[in-house]
Design brief:
The complex is a heterodimer of chains A (217) and B (545). By secondary structure, chain A is mainly alpha-helical. Chain A is built from nine helices and two strands; from the N terminus they run E-H-H-H-H-H-H-H-H-E-H. In chain A, helix 1 (11-35) packs antiparallel against helix 2 (43-70) and helix 4 runs antiparallel to helix 6 (149-177). By secondary structure, chain B is of the alpha+beta class. Chain B has 15 helices and 15 strands. The termini of chain B are far apart. The chains are: A mainly alpha (217), B alpha+beta (545). Chain A binds chain B through residues 34-36, 39, 42-44, 47-48, 51-52, 95-100, 140-141, 144-145, 147-150, 153-154, 157-158, 161-162, 164-166, 168-169, 172-173, 176, 179-181, and chain B through 287-289, 292, 295, 298, 399-400, 402, 486-488, 491-493, 502-504, 506-511, 514-515, 517-519, 521-522, 525-526, 529, 532-533, 535-536, 539-543, 545.
Chain lengths: 217, 545
């Protein structure tokens, strides 16, 4: 078992991550503007930009879902309990004692169990909740004449706002996590140049070195 | 040659400069703008006859009815048509509520009732001589063609009966009418024709409606985008289209939500809605916002955004009237007090012995409510609780009934006489030559007793004053689109639609608990992170992790 620097995030993945980050920040900003938390933008601009950004994010998700399934990368997000306790123990206790992060990245497991579960929940619960409620909200003009439409809209808006608060909470924790374990820079760099330290089996190492030398250092 | 071109170019340049300056003023025109083109009266514009060339009108007339006779000698069917319209009948039965409405019967919370006071009030009846119950509604010659069609501005009407000498003095000393001149001047009705009555409803300029004032005789485009003389220069009948002397657009039965739009060519002579010209998707879809605006028309009347304020253009409207103070005299005579100077510099009475105390307002933000177009009137036979404010015309509407939209209203508040014993409104005998008429004798008890007895109505003998409200849908003084409301006028806390129920309004509405829990979650996470980080900093051994 050798530890090598391997390109674990492809160019598309990095583009996906950072453009998604920008869009979500922008949607947060415009969305809370529409909600009335701030008045930096006027209502018309806030709604227009929020809608356009939402369309852009949906397009990005369409590409990323296609990518996840065609490249088999979805397997990184299969939940597992193996090693979960070690990670939890680290964040609750070990981190204060100066211990090292217990998880070692593997070539087909680039997220630790807690990360994988969190991202999976984000993908299958929180994101569908916000874009589902958002689309229903956006297409209000289609269903505005059904009985009790305004009460339904009330509920849709409630779900949409609730999901937004939850995503904001995730973002805060997500960013804070970058400061744990290794240095902040060490955490951010893989998402910039794609390379991170990964434990490779001799077979994986030999394969990468022979067939994909550009992806291993 | 070159110099000639140079001069030409210089002239062109000069022309370009002057025309730019001219357009720079636009759309704010000079104050003394004179209408150059004639008013647009809808599809009928462009007549086929010049009435000043007609022999039948080139003779002296002694009276109005004689002119009418001449008119009807060519317009043979017009008399029959005209007698069906409300300007003549002053009566209309609402087929939905079965209420008998019209000025002939109704009581308003301005000058109260025209019933029994026709000698004064029927100046605005489109006929000649209605002063009491004996008026002949079947005599075509009693129709007043001139009041709507003459264009010299020299025609006028005076009360049909003398009234108390204290009041009739107001109408003395007017120059005689040259009937031949006014008869030859007839044309399609101009704004000033309709305005002679409709701008002065309630007893003075813009008193009643709030959105109909003398400012609309020669308005700027800024005041009314349709009627502006520097814009479209519409006459009233451009929208209030006419079919056989019956006009579209009624306050008694209002189309609050038009589902039909422009209709096919030749159709739609029955409504004066915005949609009948602008269609059901009035905003050109060139942006997401425009698309969303078109979506709004299902719930929001066009007027709500496009008439941000009423009583604009320098003429105030009356917002409150208190009859309780009426009847004060000085040396036994009635008097009046100035107390309000309106935008155009004119003074308005704030007290009149014959009417009471007035409150005025200008550039007013309307009241916004769901409205299904149906007004329910408190009529002379309606019993109500005199201890509570009563709505002279009440209305309902909701998001879900399919015919309501959020409309702007002027709200009028009046303390006015009522029969406290029976709990009804009263017919007040205001105008008359007798000693009971309030205008001249200032005895409210006698005037009411007379007014009720005249029409065989029960009266307890105990009169007092009740607080009344009336609601006037705002639909004129449409502002140019650049001055229309913007989203955040409503989509905001404390916005214009505060208090309007039955809708979820982003920017105004939120779920208290979702917001509270959300904010606590976000702040809680932040505090947890800071706490976690602090423990790490102070407890770390070795390398900072």
């Amino acid at each position: 078992m050798a530890t090598r620097r391997v390109r674990i995030f492809t160019l598309f993945e990095r583009f996906w991550h950072w453009s998604q980050m920008l869009l979500i920040m922008f949607l947060m900003f415009t969305g809370f503007g529409v909600h009335g938390f701030h008045h930096v933008l006027n209502f018309e601009h806030a709604v227009t930009l929020h809608t356009l950004a939402a369309f852009a994010l949906l397009l990005l998700w369409a590409f990323s879902i296609f990518w996840l399934f065609t490249t088999r990368n979805w397997r990184h997000f299969i939940p597992t309990v193996k090693g979960m306790w070690g990670v939890l123990r680290f964040y609750i206790l070990g981190i204060f004692k100066g211990e090292h992060h217990p998880y070692r990245k593997a070539f087909w497991r680039k997220h630790n169990p807690l990360q994988a579960l969190t991202y999976l929940m984000l993908k299958i619960v929180l994101f569908p909740l916000i874009w589902g409620s958002g689309l229903i909200y956006l297409f209000y003009f289609v269903w505005r004449d059904i009985p009790h439409a305004t009460e339904w809209l009330d509920g849709v808006a409630l779900v949409h706002t609730g999901a937004a608060f939850t995503i904001l909470t995730f973002v805060l924790i997500h960013v804070y996590m970058l400061t744990t374990g290794h240095s902040f820079r060490a955490h951010v760099m893989p998402m910039i140049d794609g390379f991170d330290e990964v434990d490779l089996t001799p077979e994986e190492e030999a394969y990468l070195q022979n067939d994909e030398p550009e992806n291993i250092r | 040659m070159r110099s000639t071109i140079g001069i030409l170019l210089a002239l062109l340049g000069l022309f370009a400069v002057t025309s730019t300056q001219a357009t720079d003023n636009w759309p704010t025109p000079p104050a003394t703008v004179v209408p150059v083109s004639s008013q647009i009266s809808g599809p009928l514009t462009g007549g086929t006859a010049d009435h000043s060339k007609l022999e039948v009108l080139k003779k002296p007339f002694a009276s109005g009815p004689e002119v009418t006779k001449a008119c009807l000698s060519c317009h043979t069917e017009t008399g029959k048509h005209f007698m069906k319209n409300i300007h003549w009948t002053w009566e209309w039965r609402n087929p939905e509520t079965n209420q008998l409405l019209g000025k002939k019967h109704l009581i308003n919370n301005f000058c109260t009732n025209s019933r029994g006071n026709e000698g004064m009030c029927a100046q605005c009846h489109a006929g000649y001589g209605w002063k009491d119950e004996n008026f002949d509604f079947n005599n075509e010659n009693n129709i007043d063609c001139l009041v709507c069609h003459e264009t010299t501005g020299t025609y006028y009407k005076t009360p049909n009966s003398a009234g108390s000498p204290a009041c009739s003095v107001m109408f003395e000393g007017k120059p005689p009418i040259d009937f031949s001149l006014v008869a030859q001047s007839v044309n399609l009705p101009q704004r000033a024709n309709c305005g002679a009555c409709h701008f002065n409803g309630g007893g003075g300029d813009n008193v009643k409606h709030g959105d109909l004032s003398s400012a609309l005789k020669n308005p700027t485009r800024q005041l009314d985008v349709h009627m502006g003389v520097d814009g479209l220069n519409f006459a009233c009948t451009a929208c209030h289209v006419t079919k056989q002397h019956v006009w579209a657009g009624s306050r008694y039965q209002l189309e609050a939500k038009d589902h039909d739009g422009v209709g096919k060519p030749g159709q739609r002579r029955d409504v004066a809605t915005c949609e009948s010209c602008h269609g059901l998707e009035p905003h050109p879809v060139d942006s997401l916002a425009a698309f969303k605006r078109n979506d709004h028309i299902s719930s929001i009347a066009c007027q709500t955004c496009h008439i941000p304020e009423f009583a604009r253009g320098g003429v105030a409207t009356m917002t409150e009237w208190d009859w309780r103070t009426a009847g004060k005299t000085r040396n036994g005579e009635g008097y009046h007090e100035h107390g309000y100077t309106q935008g155009n510099g004119e003074h308005r009475y704030t007290y009149k012995s014959i009417k009471g105390t007035f409150t005025y307002g200008e550039n007013l933000v309307p009241l916004y409510r769901w409205f299904n177009g149906q007004m329910n009137y408190t009529t002379i036979d309606t019993k109500f609780d005199v201890t509570k404010p009563v709505a002279i015309n009440d209305f309902v509407g909701s998001r879900d009934d399919g015919r309501s939209r959020i409309w702007p209203f002027k709200q009028m508040r009046t303390w006015m006489p009522a029969d406290l014993g029976n709990g009804t409104l009263v017919y007040n005998h205001l105008w008359g030559e007798d000693s009971d008429s309030y205008w001249g004798n200032y005895d409210m008890g006698k005037a009411i007793a007379h007014g009720m007895k005249e029409f065989g109505l029960p009266y307890s003998g105990q009169f007092g004053f009740v607080e009344t409200l009336s609601y006037w849908p705002i639909t004129h003084m449409v502002t140019p689109k650049e001055n229309a409301l913007t989203c955040e006028n409503c989509h905001a806390k404390d916005g214009r639609l505060n208090g309007v129920e039955g809708l979820y309004l982003p920017g105004r509405d939120n779920n208290y608990w979702v917001d509270l829990i959300g904010v606590i979650a976000v702040l809680g996470t932040l505090f947890a992170i800071i706490g976690h980080a602090l423990i790490r900093i102070f407890s770390s051994k070795g390398a900072p992790h």
